[in-house]
Design a protein that fits this description.
Layout: H1 2-14, E1 19-21, H2 23-29, E2 38-41, H3 45-54, E3 58-63, E4 68-73, E5 76-82, E6 84-89, E7 94-98, H4 102-107, E8 117-118, E9 124-125, H5 130-136, H6 145-151, H7 154-166, H8 173-182, H9 191-202, H10 207-216, H11 220-223, H12 230-238, H13 245-252, H14 257-264, H15 268-277, H16 289-298, H17 301-314, H18 323-332, H19 342-347, H20 354-369, H21 376-394
Parallel strand pairs: 2-5
Antiparallel strand pairs: 1-2, 1-8, 3-4, 4-5, 6-7, 8-9
Helix pairs in contact: 6-8, 7-9, 7-10, 10-12, 12-13, 12-17, 13-15, 14-15, 17-18, 20-21
């Protein structure tokens, strides 16, 4: 994180005891790029804010109830959180108190690989064996797995996500036993938090293996009670489908996709994408150019592409058989636009009203049958024919 070192140095000048915590330390030890830089310190949040402001920094009170403030340096955010201990928790929310004990703060974190901290001298403070676990590819809860889960049941889903990314071999047996016994706690979580974790699992590594582990623990039944088709998702991935979470969800869900979208409170865009992916018509490799144009005239290219991926996943052995060529054509063909509008119909002598839409629909149907090839002039000529036929019937 070369660009952030100078900015971190400014923070350490103001708050010398601050340490990097969580994922930043884990990823630095792995030699990976650090996305978010989080720090912790022993001073209470009001004093942290006062010190930063006195030094001329922009400070945002992003989560004072949990001891978090955000320093903005050259548009880069640095979260700084006061050391905490949990006073009370209901499995979803925790009441915290400040502490000056770094080990006590680390003890409330989820996994050993996330419980390390690093001071300004580059010394890593590791109270629970996180470095050894990281090197060995072990994902373990800090302390008692059951206690960590009862503090926040979302840690069940986080375990599987981290196991897929950082774990090697079989998951920690103590964690598996605890998650199997406490899987029902997932039902208490907000569906927004569940979907946030599930979408990361769906786009992360080892998707199929992770979902099977979740199924074996009884966890997946609480995440997607509508039912799952893991083999179908596996076939989709084998086809080389993109890592779109909603597309993968469309393959995974065995029940009513709209019911899933409502229960998980997917965004409007995600709900529409899920429904359209499971919709009709489905393009197939034997379509000619005119048929593809007709499809593109009425359906978004992405919807057609996703339907093609899902249909290929349903083919035994998922052979290519022209699917890649079809998707290339769908992705690189300009969707045709019907050249007429209601004003053209009125200008041609049709009285305003519902009949305008009916006439326009007839011309558009003819345009579709002609492979969307007729231009504006040809459609105007056809419009006159349709209006003439209507006049003839009226007399």
């Amino acid at each position: 994180m070369p660009g952030a070192l100078e900015q971190l140095g400014r923070i350490w000048t103001i708050i010398p005891d601050a340490r990097l915590v969580g994922g930043a330390v884990r990823d630095l030890l792995r030699g990976q790029a650090v996305a978010d830089i989080d720090l912790a310190c022993a001073e209470p949040p009001d004093r942290v804010m006062a010190k930063l402001k006195a030094a001329g920094m922009k400070v945002v009170p992003t989560g004072l109830a949990h001891g978090t403030v955000t320093a903005i340096i050259d548009r880069r955010p640095f979260e700084i959180t006061t050391l905490r201990r949990d006073e009370e928790t209901d499995g979803r929310h925790a009441t915290v108190a400040w502490t000056q004990d770094w080990r006590e703060d680390a003890a409330r974190r989820d996994f050993t690989i996330n419980a390390m901290s690093c001071d300004s001298a580059g010394v890593v403070h590791d109270y629970f064996g996180g470095q050894a676990d990281l090197a060995a590819g072990r994902v373990r809860f800090v302390g008692d797995a059951r206690l960590r889960i009862t503090e926040d049941a979302l840690r069940i889903l986080r375990f599987f996500r981290f196991q897929a990314r950082y774990g090697r071999g079989q998951p920690d047996p103590q964690a598996i036993a605890a998650m199997t016994d406490l899987a029902g706690l997932i039902d208490r979580l907000s569906v927004e938090r569940i979907w946030s974790e599930l979408r990361r699992i769906l786009t992360g590594p080892e998707v199929v293996r992770t979902l099977r582990q979740m199924h074996d623990c009884g966890v997946l039944a609480h995440v997607l009670p509508e039912g799952c088709d893991i083999p179908r998702l596996e076939r989709l991935l084998a086809c080389g489908a993109p890592d779109e979470p909603v597309l993968r969800l469309a393959a995974l869900v065995a029940g009513d996709a709209r019911a899933v979208a409502r229960r998980l409170k997917l965004s409007r865009a995600e709900t529409g994408a899920l429904a359209h992916a499971r919709g009709e018509p489905v393009p197939c490799p034997d379509l000619d150019g005119a048929a593809i144009l007709r499809l593109l005239a009425d359906h978004a290219p992405r919807d057609l592409l996703w339907r093609a991926w899902l249909r290929q996943a349903d083919v035994p052995g998922h052979p290519d058989a022209g699917w890649d060529a079809l998707r290339h054509q769908l992705a690189h063909t300009q969707p045709p636009v019907f050249p007429l509008s209601g004003s053209d119909v009125v200008s041609a002598g049709c009285p305003p009203g519902a009949v305008v839409g009916q006439v326009l629909g007839k011309v558009r149907q003819w345009w579709l049958e002609k492979g969307c090839a007729p231009d504006h002039a040809a459609c105007i000529a056809r419009l006159r024919v349709v209006l003439g036929e209507g006049a003839t019937r009226a007399t």
